[in-house]
Amino acid sequence: MELAALAVRRDAFLERVASRRRTLMGILNVTPDSFSDGGMFQSFDAAVAQARRMVEDGADIIDVGAESTRPGHTPISAQDERKRLEPLLARLLQDVDAPFSIDTYKASTARWAAGRGVCVVNDIWGLQKDAGMADAVAETGAAVVVMHNRAAVDAKIDIVSDMRRFFDVSLKRAEAAGVPRAHVMLDPGIGFGKTKEQNLAALKATDLFVREYKLPILIGVSRKSIFGLLLGAAVDGRLVGTLAANLITATAGARIFRVHDVAEHHAAFTVMDAIENA
Where are the alpha helices (DSSP H) in the chain? Predict the structure, then answer.
């Protein structure tokens, strides 16, 4: 029953993305240690209220994460990840009228969440960390965000070439497992295993990846440290930088934007759309 509901939510979400409308993914971290909002939404009431607020502000999907993946984070087990999710996920899915994605790189967590109706798996390791992830995505019918990542920063590499190689491996794994290409989205992985210059190069290459892969591109730059480096801004002062990066990549063809500040992005894209359609 839940997998049938998953397919309905998945198809509605993917139809919106395919229509080329800008799509907002609201960030809901149910973690004690995320860099921006750690500890704020661990309770039932706080998590549901925040999810509802983001939907009211214009979010098209809510991305739930139970493990911080900020630089220097402490990994947790699948059991601990699920322990954080179990009390919250069922109520979120029941009480909030929106599709949900699960921010995890663990196949067992992805499979469990999809079994409860989560329709997108957002994998920061692009199906390459957990050997069972591609099969979990295929068997549950979830859509998947394939994010580029690196175990270590290497300032000497051509990051765009590295991203191409990474995406090619991920897409082959998805195809071999039986994940329909129409269910796949790509994320350049800003802030993951890259220098400041490589992050900027990855963002600049948005139009290249749109042309080469012909898949929806998701941009996740919200409040990230690149804006601290560029602007000297603390976490709560990075909205302007986030908006600028998202608007620029939107003009380059990016379709999905993973953000903390939903209302501000909804307003910015409303103005952008009005000008483009004038």
Answer: 2-18, 44-57, 78-95, 107-114, 133-140, 159-177, 196-204, 206-213, 225-231, 239-251, 262-276
Instruction: For residue 224, indicate whether it is catalytic.
Output: yes
Residue 208, phi then psi, degrees to nearest 5: -65, -45
Q: Which domain holds residue 66?
A: 2-276
Q: Which bin fits 121, alpha (ψ -120 to 50), beta or left (φ > 0)?
A: beta
| 19-33, 35-49, 167-181, 226-240: least confident range | 35-49
Q: Does residue 173 have an active-site annotation?
A: no
Query: Where do we find the tokens 């990230």?
Result: 224
Active-site residue, from 111, 224, 238, 255: 224
CB 25 within 8 A of CB 101: yes
Contact call for residues 121 and 110 (beta carbons, < 8 A): yes
Q: Say if strands 61-65 and 120-123 run parallel, antiparallel, or are unpaired.
A: unpaired
Which among 154, 251, 161 has a CA at the least distance from the CA of 212? Answer: 161
130-163 pLDDT, tens digit each = 999 999 999 999 999 999 999 999 999 999 999 9
Closest CA to 54 of 265, 274, 235, 247: 265
Which residues fall within 8 angstroms of residue 56, CB to CB, at 6 or more apart?
A: none
Spatial distance between the Cα atoms of 25 and 197, rounded to a whole number of angstroms? 26
Domain count, the chain: 1
Q: What is the CATH number of the domain that holds 257?
A: 3.20.20.20
